[in-house]
Amino acid sequence: MTIDILILSNGPGELVTWVRPVVQTLREKLGYDRAFVRISVILSPCPNASGSEAAIARSYPEIDRVQAAEHFFPFLLSGKTVENWDWRTKGIVLFLGGDQFFTAIIGKRLKYRTIVYAEWEARWLNWIDRFGVMKADMITKIPQKYAHKFTVVGDLMADLGKESPAIQNYEPNTELIGILPGSKAAKLASGVPLSLAIAEQIHRLRPQTRFAIVVAPTLDLETLARFADPKYNQVLPLFGSVSAELYLEEPPFLLTKNGVKLELYTQSPAYSLLKKCCLCLTTIGANTAELGSLGVPMIVLVPMQQMDAIRTWNGIPGLLVNLPLFGSGFATVINWLAWKMRQGKLFAWPNIWAQEEIVPELIGKLEPQALAELAIDYLSHPEKLAEMRDRLRAVRGESGAATKLTQIVCEEISLL
Q: How far apart are CA 141 and CA 283, in angstroms?
């Protein structure tokens, strides 16, 4: 019997934290004989996408075929991929990100069994064959007639970094701060200068502290360095007199004009580095979920010094903020209104999971000195970091989810 396994996913976070461990476990269990099992990935649009999701999926040797997100809706409507893939008679559609509804539609069209990994909510219970859920309390919320479809598999993120190689250039007792400024220009324009300014303030009082910037896999070093260059990044002066130059040594680093070194870490995923960090400074996004799952204390920063810098809205707001001449004004107004409307809401994934603020979220016109003092307070009180670490671990599910989800796939294959 020959089988197709079609994985539906969307964003960069899901590809790294869900798809990657699952395809590795599927191949370990089902083997690498493509004549028996072929694994395909079809991506759907994601507001947090960087545009490199298809390339990330293609880099996984376990995957045989990948279709990028821009071709998703023609496939959903017509059933044909852009490359006119063939489909085997029997197969599985496995949901690992996006909209669960897509799984039901595509499963019906291909006449495949359907499996959904549900982290927080399970939908379309009548149409989906099996659900692998993160926690048992999800099952208590569903009608009893669907309970047989549900299996508690645990947390796909809980095993992050278990097999990451050790980093040799950091001693065990190094006081290391990780910096995750993001991958998109709108975040980097403010995130990089803010990070430089905070690092200089911390270094002045704690010269023993080392800094490492985690470089997104979709970002090259030269592009990152431009956001530390006042000739390129007009936002730099808003964070004081900061700038840095790129040195392409091993490892590469940025050196501020005041002599503070920020090493650049390009390995992806960066779990081996992150697990060595005492504290991370990060923007919002999937990286907060990864840090939370690794149990790494963090401070989440959303600088809004330049209200007109954020132009990533969808729909009518997106059209307005990108208008020539008037776009900057629209961006300022729309972003200010959005900021006011979102005050009091939670942005970091660990806080969303817990429905309370486990990690600090700081949004607005952020001052580097105040942020440095907050970071130093945490570094000076390891018991505060330990408490945050424990609370982060408490809000996630059990480990071993990839293995248990693979077992569900094998059970469904046996029914074909």
A: 33
Report helix angle 382-394 to 368-380, nearest 10: 90
Element holding 94 (H helix, E strand)? strand 90-95
Token pair for 223: 């592009």
Report the chain's mean pLDDT, rounded to a whole number: 87
Look at residues 154, 152, 164, 225 and name the one whose alpha carbon lies nearest to residue 195.
Answer: 225
Q: What is the pLDDT of residues 361-410, one digit of tens each?
A: 998 889 999 999 999 999 999 999 999 999 998 887 777 899 999 999 99
The answer to whether 378 and 385 have CB atoms below 8 angstroms apart is: yes
DSSP characters for 239-281?
GSS--EEEE-SSS-EEEETTS-EEEEE--SS-HHHHTT-SEEE
Cβ(57)–Cβ(68) under 8 Å? Answer: no
User: What's the one-letter identity of residue 217?
Assistant: P
Using the Cα atoms of residue 237, residue 180, residue 118 and residue 7 in order, give the sign of their dihedral: positive
CA-nearest of 23, 25, 20 to 5 is 23
Cis omega (within 30 of 0) for bond into 269: yes
The DSSP letter of residue 76 is: H
**DSSP 8-state secondary structure symbol assigned to residue 146:** G
**Cα 353 to Cα 361: distance, rounded to the nearest angstrom:** 14
Measured on CA atoms in the order 81, 85, 88, 93, is the torsion positive or negative? negative
Above 90 in pLDDT, residue 347?
no
Phi, psi (rounded to 5 degrees) for 181: -85, -5
DSSP 141: G
Question: H-helix or E-strand containing 112?
Answer: none
Q: How far is CA 312 from CA 68, 187, 306, 308, 328, in A?
A: 20, 10, 14, 11, 12
**Tens digits of residue pLDDT in 279-314:** 999 998 878 988 998 899 999 998 875 544 444 444
User: Contact at 8 Å (CB) between 412 and 115?
Assistant: yes
- Evaluate whether 281 touches 259 at the Cβ level (below 8 Å): no
pLDDT in tens, 15-66: 888 999 999 999 999 999 999 999 999 999 987 777 788 988 999 999 999 9
Quote the pLDDT of residue 171.
Answer: 64
Over residues 398-415, the pLDDT tens digits come to 778 999 999 999 999 999
Instruction: Take residue 304 and report the two structure tokens written for it.
Output: 């809004």
Q: Is the pLDDT of residue 325 over 80?
A: no
Q: Which amino acid, 250? A: E
Residue with tokens 């440095």: 372
224 SS3 class: helix
